[in-house]
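Students often ask why we bother predicting the structure of a whole assembly rather than each chain alone. The short answer is interfaces. A chain on its own may look different once its partners are present, and contacts between molecules only exist in the joint model. In this exercise we take two input lines together and write out one structure for the complete complex. Read the inputs first and try to guess which parts will touch.
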Amino acid sequence: MVRYTLSRLLALVPVLLGVSLLAFLLANLAPGDPAELALSQGDQEPTAAEIAAKREELRLNDPMPVRYVRWLGDVIRGDMGLTYTDSVPVLPELARRIPATVKLATAALLLALVLGVSIGTVTAVYRGTLLDEAGRVLALLCASLPSFAVALILIYAFAVILRLLPVAGYGDGDLRHLILPAISLSVFTMGTLVRLTHASVLEVMGQDYIRTAYAKGLNKLAVVLKHALRNALLPVVTVAGTQFGQLLGGAAIVETIFAWPGVGKLVVESIYARDYPIIQGFVLLAGLTFVLVNLATDLLYAVIDPRIRLGAGAQGRGDDHA
Amino acid sequence: MKHPHFSRRHFLGATAATGLAAIAAACGPTGAPGPAVEGNSQGESDAPSAQGSSAAPPRNRSAEELVLAAPRDLANGLEDPYFTHLIVNAWNSLSKLDNDLVPQPELAESWESSDDARVWTIKLRPGITFHDGGEFDAGAVAANIERYVKISPRSSRFFGYSKERALGQFEKVEAVDANTVRLTLGEPRPALPNTMSNFYSAMFSPASFNAEGSFNAPPASTGPFKIIEWEKGQHLILEAFEGYHLGAPAVKQIILRSLPDPNTRVAALRSGEIDGVVDLGGLQPQQGAQLRGEGAVTVNSKPIALFQYLSFNCRKPPFDKPEMRQAVNMAIDRQSLADDLWHGFATAGKSILPSFATTWARQDLVPEYNPQKALELAQAALGGQRMKITAPISSLQNNRYPYKSLFEVIQAVIAPLGLDAELQLIEHAAWKEVVANGDYNLTVSTFGWANGDPDYIFSRFMHSTGNTNATRHFDYNDPEVDSLIEQAAVALDYNERRALYDQLQEIAFNDVRFAALLYDHVVFAHHPEVKGYDVSALYQPTLAKLSVG
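Now the answer. The structure tokens for the assembled complex follow.
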């Protein structure tokens, strides 16, 4: 297991280097002069002399490979530069926003997992019934509706018409502020998990050991919960892991709509302001989060199913299941 | 087939309970976005928190507290030259533009210049104090001007500071006595009250900034409201300044929430979670029209110092021919654009100087709407041929205005002229680059006439060294035009300046290298119980005059 973990960790290095290169090129090859962008945050257009001075200050006249190596060195030391909009360090700015995004994504994932697995299981167990049909329609709706549409529908229903919940805002510790954003963010993942669980449970329910369990006299609830679901959840765990990474990255629209002070909203604002240092920081952070969540999922998978671990040990790679 | 041990009722009950539990599990006491940035509060405050106001709709509206929403954060941190936007009403300036864009004394009482407009003596209003109790006097003004000179150029999300644009060639500032400041410049600057208006002479307590010119904390100023809390990206809490020199505001506390999504702002207004909307783009024209139709909230608008204008690339066919530019200009029905696309929240454009600024704008320069004449001009210029042209639009500006619809209208009305326009909706930086590289024929953008000085527009648009002239490829390189602009910039007599700017407006109007399409209005809305809500030509709301009744 240690060898497997180390091999997976080593495999991350080139991935992260690639992400860093992409993040660097994003700011340096995108349209517009970074020096001019840094000076053009308000309504003013900087003069040529001001732009030249800013280029010198940001050391943009050096060759690009030199700038990349210097930038990477700074990033490794935790220095991602200053934001263009308000000249504050990027890393603390991102770090300040992460808890809100993690809170939202965690709530959304838990909601999606609980509802997705439950509905998926029930529709599989009651296959062919009205409940199954209703579950499928719900799953299709969830997977088809974009999160912003769900958000606007929920706001209109629960905040404007019923006035049960606030329209937007964070509300420190106030549960009501989390409900609508979490539901909006979870629907797509929930739809995916319903369908996945449904298919997985159906497959497992046809296995010999399920028939054996019934033959032992166990009731349906016990068979489903103790035997079928446990095995059917293996692919669900994998997908849920990758979905968490996507939820973190995909929270931008939901955060903007609900004025939720997370990383996603910050990035949307930074894109509008062309604040490239923040966008670079986010790309790095999102890349890192994604690979770490994938790693954690793979390791968890290997713990759940030892065949993965053995296979990886024999072949020197661990993504055979993917 | 029956499933006696796994009933639907049990399952649904369990699902609902676990769903709620899932959310509750994720909502521990931890996980707040962390403290606001360093120095975001000014002393202890027992003010109710912003989320307290937002979490329990509908709220009781009272003079104790109002909640307004803006599409952006109206504060920008300690490194910003002004910390907050003008909209916030936290600071005052020496000179302020009135609704005709004429500079009026604000913290200054009066000003006079030497005959050559190089030395300016500014008398200050006596008896004004800063929020921190410090006295606003000549020493404070000198310290502020020296700070600006030191930090220039300083980027700002609101309005970047440049000492050249504010003061020209600055030489020195002196406190003559407690209420008199003398400013000496290296060149005549008759428009100084314009060029140092609003942002460019915002005054702060000298105790609020350090030797490098950065703020130590949200700065103390002299405005009707003082900042008591700033949660970056979320809200700004203002408290009425009892010592405000024009009288304490009636509303004791104002919470300015940042709600970036336009639909969310409207939903919050409808639900009563907020009492009003402020800022440019706070309500899009279509939303303003819709809310006005519903009648539940009061919707108003005001002409502001902002206009939409057409730019022609005059270095490339077909718009290197003046006839083609005139043809396009004549084919556009500006009144229809204002009425139908902007829902009445704009005025049809005339001269490049917005017509409400009567001090300078020529009212007689009205573009002719004449599709038939446009067709004749185009046929003569193109010889009956059809041409493909590119018309890029900035996605950033499309978010604030119905630019895509505007371009589709333009596309339709110029098609009969023989022009097949390809619309390109692109990211703002890419749009700027495309336009600056000359890879365009026609575009529309927005320009803010920030200081009411005509030189602000003409030196950029028409001078051979003007930045907008270069980046839009207007191709102005006329010594006579340059000379008019340079003469007007230093002319001491109003009538002389007016005559020069009249000539420049006429040249611009006839050349049609650029053309005003629409003069913008800001759309703002509030609940009917909120009284006294108006905005200035720079879309500053009159927060000090608000009351609830």
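Check your guess against this: DSSP finds 13 helices and no strands in chain A.
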